Amino acid sequence: FVVIFLIAVVYTFAVTPLFNSVATIEFEEKKPKQEDRVYGNPEYDQYKGYLATQLELLKSRKLAEGLVERLNLAESPEFATTPGGARKWFLDLASRLNPNIVPEEEEPNAAARMNNLSDKVLKRVSVKPVKTSNLASVSMDATSPVLANQLLQNYLDLYLENNLEKRRKESLEASAWLKVELVQVEKKLME
Q1: Are 92 and 103 in contact (CB under 8 A)?
Q2: Comparing C-alpha atoms, which of 141, 139, 142 is closest to residue 127?
């Protein structure tokens, strides 16, 4: 019993606590009418596809990379990585015991580092749809409540900015198409 108690005490003091910040977001897209909400209806299937797409976009590497850049997580102690870990420790020990062994300095390239940091962000993000609604619960874990909140707020800001940019591009493309059509209609009217 004493051994189990000691293990529990050591574990309690050794484990870093994780705090969770949660937000609920709503997807605004024209939903099919109530009578059209039946399986097999193209409008309903299209809406379900839209929701699934938005949920996957919330878990995308693009957002994670944007968060890494925006908050400079490469410099954050919580996200900092020590290259090599145990391997580096053993190489350092071996070089002390045998001076002919020179420990290699491994500096990961920028792409590998970004990939590693993005993976760490994605492991902390959780996206869960709320059943029978167009809502989703998005959460982010961190070792401090302030950091968890900051990470989540910036992550969701990036998601919203990406959606707005996509809609802006679509509007500009539609506007350009309408201008071309207007010129063609004007030419036909002049003839």
Answers
A1: yes
A2: 139
d(CA 162, CA 160): 5
- Virtual torsion, Cα 62, 64, 69, 71, nearest 10 deg: 150
Pairing mode of beta strands 19-26, 135-142: antiparallel
pTM of the prediction?
0.69
Say if CB 63 and CB 48 are below 8 A apart.
no
Cβ burial of 124 (10 Å; 0-12, 13-18, 19+) is buried
**Cα 191 from chain centroid?**
55
Residue 119: partners with Cβ closer than 8 Å, 6 or more residues away: 64
> Tokens for 6?
């000691």
Interval 163-191: pLDDT, tens: 889 888 988 888 888 899 898 888 888 87
Q: Which ranges in 98-138 belong to alpha helices (H)? A: 110-124
